[in-house]
Amino acid sequence: MDNSELHIVMVGHVDHGKSTVIGRLLYDTKALPEGTVDKVKRIAQETGKPFEYAYLLDAFEEEQKQGITIDTTQLKFHTASREYVIIDAPGHKEFLKNMISGASDAEVAFLIVDAARGVEEQTKRHAYILRLLGIRKIYVLINKMDLVDYQQTRFTAVKAEVSAFLATLQLQAAGFIPVSAYYGENLLQHSVKMPWYTGKSFITTLDSIQAKPTAENQPLRLPI
Q1: Please, which of 20, 86, 144, 163 could form a disulfide with 181 given CB 3.0 to 4.6 Å?
Q2: In Å, how far are 6, 38, 83, 113, 184 from 2, measured between CA atoms?
Q3: Distance between CA 12 and CA 59 in Å, rounded?
Q4: pLDDT tens track for 86-139
Q5: Is the separation of the CB atoms in 103 and 12 below 8 Å?
């Protein structure tokens, strides 16, 4: 395993599935503490809600009741290649300050966009903040492909829409990946439901990203 550690930030409009992407990823890579899944399933049953992978991220029951991610959370997982730190940044506009403080530590960003809904207000706001923070390596996860029957035409349309907006910010996506986080399609392995997609899965894409060299030999900087 590579000794380097890659910091990635996940951003996206509320309800576009960011927490589901991360929750499913942690579940599939067996990065969750023992008992977490059973606890979430119990809470879901007690509250009469269906089980959601997004609930795995909510550290506090109050956040589970509200159904939104309030604070910035750092979560670790690893593949056979190396260690990763996911910075889960809040999507709601009330928590933009938290998102900025979290995203500033990241080397790579994943912008999550709903395949059915396309670019929305917070999609644009988050992309703009990534640009301000100087994060230039941005991948786009076009999520919820199951809602559009895994259609290539819809993926292509959303890809064009996102690309056009990023161009207004002088940004260009490093790649576009169609996924269905809830069903785990194209996260760890290439999805058979999207044979038209010839690119890498999400996890293969992660493992192919080169981490920046550490700054241990650079002059001391103290962020304020």
Answers
A1: 20
A2: 10, 32, 8, 30, 25
A3: 20
A4: 876 654 454 455 555 555 567 899 999 999 999 998 899 889 888 887 888 999
A5: no
